[in-house]
Amino acid sequence: MVDIVDSATRSRMMSGIRGRNTKPEILIRSLLHRQGFRFRLDARDLPGRPDIVLPRCRAVVLVHGCFWHGHDCRLFKWPQTRAEFWREKIGRNRSNDDKVRHALLNDGWRVAVVWECALRGADRDIAGVLQRLVDWLKSDAPSFEERG
After folding, report:
1. pLDDT below 50 — which residues of the chain?
2. Distance CA 128, CA 143 (A)
3. What is the spatial distance between Cα 136 and Cα 12, in angstroms, rounded to a whole number?
4. How far does Cα 22 stand from its chain's mean position?
């Protein structure tokens, strides 16, 4: 399938996609802050530079975009153009996600992953997502994952 825009337009569109301060990430940070949690952002001293680090809870929260991390949900669809490139790219992202998660767990950090699909769409339950995340932060469980 041929792209519907020229390569210069596609390049400009792709360059506008942010890796930090995404809407789902800002939403989670805002909700956690309202609940009284204080955190650091993009900790360079931790594997993978987690999105949100809660030192008092010894926990990190990774907010994953469904496309970029290859989540098996309604928001993810394999691109039709340059299919091999995208399979390799998303495969590397998934592999890196696993390595980062294991490294953080091995360093004694608790790891939560919140997927974009849990926060988007008509059927979203943001209050429920927040409550489950807060319950996990107050527990001793090593990992947590919230899917849409």
Report:
1. none
2. 17
3. 39
4. 9
Pick the CATH number of 19-146 from 3.60.15.10, 3.90.950.20, 3.30.450.20, 3.40.960.10: 3.40.960.10
CB 109, CB 60: distance < 8 Å:
yes
Q: What is the pTM of this model?
A: 0.86
Exposed (0-12), middle (13-18) or buried (19+): which is 39, by Cβ within 10 Å? Answer: buried
The domains of the chain are located at 19-146
Measured CA to CA in angstroms, residue 48 lies from 69, 97, 111, 125 at distances of: 14, 8, 12, 28
Residue-level pLDDT at 20? 72
pLDDT of amino acid 25 = 93
